[in-house]
Structures are given as structure tokens and as C-alpha cells.
Design brief:
Strand order of the largest sheet: 1-2
Number of strands: 2
Number of helices: 13
Radius of gyration: 22 Å
Distance between the termini: 62 Å
Structural class: mainly alpha
Shape: elongated
Largest sheet: 2 strands, antiparallel
Length: 257
């Protein structure tokens, strides 16, 4: 059971255990070793960016924390690192798991009257943005997120940004949304990457209906906030846009058919 073990291992690395029995305390690392293990994961990630290795080591650190009922700054750091790395790799499943665990840790810290992480507001903002992925329950998740925010949190720049993105989404203000996306702080843009194409597609439909007879690809690249022209061109083809013979413009009339 969680908290029923006191680890004695000094190994900085170990595989994640698929437990079907009580683990040997000699295979579980105590807090002082876990701090060093987490530092090693970060160093190796910066040096090699081996996602499979980093993910397994982070999961094993988190497992050791759960088995020993370790919360506090160490557990927060482990999950925050997990979220950052999963964002870099675009791993939605790991992102979802990490954000959910962080929400529980931050709430436990609040109930204990303590601050376990100076990054609480940053990752809370990512969780708010993460809830905007699906249109089906976006309003419900946004309402829940607002209800959970404490007054002081609403003053934080990262959370204000996330709320502004939500306002732009719910009001179908594509231009404002895409402007916010382009100026997203920290790693917020990585979270928005999971649903930005949904907004781009709607904005594209508006632009094609409003423009005659052609719309330059370079102009769309700017309006839809793509970094590279080839990314924009691929997106346009995927959405069924008909290009002019020289591939420089979208034929608006033919694209609307």
C-alpha cells in the first residue's frame, strides 16, 4: 500500500515496476536518492533527449514517491519535469496524466497551507488550456477551472493568458486566438498545439468566403500563424483548398465548391 514502505536503495536509475506484489524496500529509493535521480534524468534529457529512457525513469521516480507517500516539492518537481518533456514530444497521454497528478499535489499543498512549487500557477494554466482540446466538454471544464481558481491566482499572468485563450475560443474570435497563440508564454504554445488546427480551419473558412478571387499562401501563413510556408501549404492541401497553377495562391471560388 502507498506509504507503507521505506526505501533503502541507493541506485540512481531503475526500471518502472509493474507491481503485482509488495516490492522489496531494497529496490525503492528514499527521498535523498530520488532528488539525485531526478537531477540525473534532467541532465540526460538535455544531453541526449532520449524520451523513452526519460519517461521510464520519471515514472519510476513517481512510483517510489507514491509507495512511500512522498509528496511535497520532490513529487511536484518529478511531475512538472514529466509534463515539460511530454510537451516537447507532443505526448498527449503523458501530458494528461502529469497534469492530473499535479492538480492533486497542488490541492494537497493548499490544504496543508504550504507552497510545494513556485510553478503552480504555470502548470495550472497548462491544465486550463489542456481542457480546451475537446469542444464537447470545453465549457464544462472551463467552468470547473474557474471555480477552482483562488482569487490571487486570477492575477497571475500565465493564468490570465489561459483564460484569455478560453474567451477567444468561446467567442469564435479566431484572430485574437491566433494572436495569443503566437505570443504564448513559456510552454503554453505547446499545449495549444494540440487544438490550434481546429481554430485555423474555421478561420480559413472565413477567409476563403470573404476573399475574391484568390488568397496568397504567404498571406495565409501570416494570418494562420504558421512558422514555415511548407507547413501552411500542407495544411491548406489537407483541408481541401484548391491551389492556383503556380501554387502561390488559394483559388477561393473553386475551394468553396
Amino acid at each position: 500500500r502507498a506509504g507503507g514502505i521505506k526505501g533503502t536503495s541507493t541506485a540512481l536509475e531503475r526500471p518502472y515496476l509493474r507491481l503485482h506484489f509488495a516490492p522489496d524496500p531494497a529496490t525503492i529509493r528514499p527521498p535523498e536518492i530520488l532528488v539525485k535521480a531526478l537531477s540525473l534524468v534532467k541532465q540526460k534529457w538535455l544531453a541526449n533527449a532520449d524520451y523513452a529512457h526519460a519517461s521510464e525513469q520519471l515514472m519510476s521516480i513517481q512510483q517510489d514517491c507514491r509507495l512511500q507517500a512522498i509528496q511535497g516539492p520532490l513529487a511536484c518537481d518529478a511531475y512538472e519535469t514529466n509534463v515539460r518533456i511530454s510537451l516537447e514530444k507532443g505526448d498527449l497521454a503523458e501530458l494528461s496524466r502529469g497534469l492530473s497528478s499535479l492538480a492533486e499535489l497542488y490541492h494537497a499543498a493548499f490544504l496543508a497551507g504550504q507552497e510545494w512549487s513556485s510553478n503552480c500557477n504555470e502548470f495550472t494554466a497548462y491544465r486550463i488550456l489542456h481542457g480546451m482540446r475537446s469542444e464537447a466538454d470545453m465549457l464544462q471544464k472551463a467552468s470547473t477551472a474557474l471555480w477552482e481558481l483562488r482569487p490571487k491566482q486570477r492575477e497571475d499572468a500565465d493564468i490570465r493568458f489561459a483564460l484569455s485563450v478560453g474567451e477567444a475560443l468561446m467567442s469564435d474570435d479566431h484572430e485574437r486566438f491566433l494572436r495569443l497563440y503566437a505570443d504564448a508564454p513559456k510552454m503554453a504554445g505547446y499545449v495549444i498545439d494540440f487544438f490550434v488546427d481546429r481554430v485555423r480551419e474555421r478561420a480559413l473558412q472565413v477567409y476563403v468566403r470573404a476573399c475574391q478571387p484568390e488568397l496568397e499562401v504567404d498571406a495565409l501563413k501570416t494570418m494562420l500563424r504558421f512558422n514555415k510556408r511548407k507547413e501552411c501549404f500542407r495544411f491548406l492541401r489537407e483541408k481541401g483548398m484548391v491551389m492556383t497553377d503556380d501554387k502561390q495562391c488559394v483559388d477561393c471560388k473553386r475551394s468553396r465548391c
